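Reviewers asked in the last cycle whether our approach scales beyond single polypeptides. To address this, we selected a multi-component target totalling 937 residues and predicted its structure end to end. The input consisted of the following lines:
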Amino acid sequence: MTERRYGRRRVLAGLGAAGLSGLAGCGGFTPEQNEATGTDGAGNGTVGGTAGDSFGEFRGSGPLAEGRGDVGGTAIADLPDLSGELTIYLGGGEGGLYRDLLARFEGMYDDFSYNARESGTSDAANTLINEGSATPADVFWSVDAGSLAAVANRGLTAKLPSNVVDPVPDEFHPDDQWVGTAGRARAVPYNTSALSGGDVPDSVMEFPNSEALANAMGWAPTYGAFQAFVTAMRLIEGADATRQWLRGMLDAGVSEYNNEFLVSNAVADGELDAGFANHYYALRVKASRPNAPLDLAFTSGDAGALINAAGAEVLSASGNQELAFTFVRHLLSAEAQEFFATRTYAYPMIPDIPPVGGLPTIDELNPPSIDLSRLSEIQPTLELMRDVGVL
Amino acid sequence: MVSDGGFGRVRRLLDDDEPGTAVVVLAAAVAAAVLSPLVWLLVGASSLDADAAVSLLTSGTATTVLVNSLVLAAVVTAASVVLGVPLAVLTVQTDLPFRRLWTVLAALPLVVPSYIGAFAYVSAFGPSGALADLLAPLGIGIPTVYGLGGTALVLTLFTYPYVFLTTRASLLSFDATQLEAARTLNHTYPEAFRRVILPQIAPGVTAGALLVALYTISDFGTPAIMRYDVFTRVIYVELNSFGVGRANATLLSMQLLAVTALILALESRVGGDAAAGYGTPSSVETVVSLGRFRWVAAAAAGGVSLFTLALPVGILGMWLVRSGPGYGGGGLAFHPAFAANSVYAAALTAGVTVLFALPVAYYAGRSESAFAALVERATYLGYAMPGVVLGLALVFFSSQWLRDAVGPTAAQLVYQSLPLLVFAYVVRFLPQAVGSTRSSVLGVDRDLIGAARLLGASPRRAFRRVTLPLISPGLLAGAALVFLTTMKELDTTLILHPTGFTTIVTYIWRVQEAGYYGRAALPALVLIAVSGLSMIPLLSGGRDDA
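The resulting structure, written as structure tokens, was:
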């Protein structure tokens, strides 16, 4: 661990130090929590809120959620009531956490009920496209902006009113056909026993040439988030540079995994020195194994720093659009945003609400400027990946 | 195996036994129904322009996946026969200790969803896997689990029960007195097996082998996890893109179906009706005494179960114990009602599928006509249709198309309803029931039916009193296969399930998709346990005395 190396990623020092030395800072990991969780899998800290604050219902507990005070944003109490019945298609759904939130909303209002169906993001989008105007769905809430845009591009969505989208930064509602509800940053989980933060290049394009990373990297090319990342690279750097980058990574002996949780897990296990993954997977591994030698690095201003969004849109065939708009506002309420931040470790979409665990804020991350709706242009990306032999 | 030709009247009555028009129409209607989703494939692929289609199909990747898919299917099928046939013989014809237990255990791997089986093997034997780490200090290195070897191994371990169950059904319909006769002629058991038993169980073995081959080329989960490039992996990737990707996926699915048709044509040459049966009802007594090899055989059967059941269950248990917030977090808890939903849908599907399969199997088993063969083969195509592709086809049909063609009420009634889901299952799994039923029909001694007719029974009565009881092991085996595969079916279920109808598998998907493996462990164990319990009546329904 070289102190100097933390310069660029000072914001993550708490995360790394807690894991390695047990000197947990405020908002970092506490080893005591680890002792409590132990190996018996009692599952401490998975449910329930911290008593005594206004977010008790919604805020997660556990090491990453501790020490958070009140946050900004619009409280649910200040929103119109939810009243009526909604059919909601979930793309993904964070292992049931989205259903968990829906159940909380239902519990808050006597007159509100919902039907939720979930499938994979692209399955759900393909289903909506095949249903067309015959869809029973009012809302599509998906963990990938590309799937939201794919449905919107077919003209199947209603424009969201300004009181829904205004609290959210513009890049997360590019054409108001959908709005981001939680951010998911691309990141580089790395093993702190094998590498120091400075070994991870600042530019994602330099990865194939890095001596330190040769034969020690992992990725998940069939995973949607990775394909979105390559799509972003193609849009920013061009097809040729992307092809070269993919070839370079293959030449550098990158290993393939089935999804990015497994990549992050393999980094924590020392099977890999570093990998490409969405940021929250590493946080989940850390939350479960605070002593794992795992930290996150971020590249700067390029595809490696892409922030994709989970988001929601309202179907134009819905006969219940007003209720659907109010529902989306609930997803952007302070309570729901705190829920996403502390339970899924996502980036809140409301600037007044900070991310957990000492993560850099969206502004500090310096994501590339790219229209997230264009992440649905996966086809040329796939052709390119196939050409190179990555798929 | 030629019967005494002296009974002219019996012969004439046997000719009557050629299936009647009603059976033919029913069989053809079933085939047409299960082929109907293919229409959507044609519509979907027609949106591609010809040049793009040709370039996709002739690209390096397309050729590679074609070869890879065929190689994988061949290896898995051969290995499944090597594993499934001896286990079936051991559990049916020998004095193996605890036969019923081994029968259930040998069939049970079928209930392990491939995404769980493959995941367990990667967790155990992959780099830094639990068992790999355990064995490494002992100097035992494990070759990589990824690629052809690992994929073939895992698929074999979890699909050989197809061969086991269909072979078992054939053996149960097999007339043991023939074996006795062969042995009085001084044939050793292996010799008698080759000359007497094998020809008669061949239709059963090939029916199972065909199911294995087709399952292998249509399976999504295993090749993806074990990193082996086959059709389904590429189709999956295409479906994850939008726009042209949807048409590409459709085109690749059609190519997959073409390969399936090829395999079906190949099988009808190899597999045969050579043994068009004249067996009498099976005998119930144990045929072969293993002597002191009984325990060796039991150990071998146990060894197989170790890899197919103990290992995945152990790995799941490990995830369960390991679970902290990272693995074990996530939303709403597992509820027993999910298991009830699974059993309900699977039982319903098993019943409907057997009803659908009966006319097809009976027609194919009784008629030599080319049309009968065509009808029977046609029912196999849906089996190779990737579940996602089938699901999306039915979405289009039952929402947009049905609304425009019939009316909004009809669409609301059908779309996302349980009957639609069951229909999708039938399309996918009908061949499992057709195959084993047909081989049982082939095994029925026609002289018996002739005798019944001679005694004045109507064809219908002869069917009910003679044929039906004789083919019941085949029907039950078919029902068991369909039940088990429906229990674990994921892709179609996710797309078509009635809203709010959570099953064990959709729950597992929900938590596992987000990486909460700890929460997937308990429902996966429930899935295996519930399926296992359900198998006991299904398997003991056969004439198993053990």
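Confidence is low (pLDDT under 50) at residues 1-53 of chain A. We regard this as preliminary and will revisit it once experimental data from Aim 1 are available.
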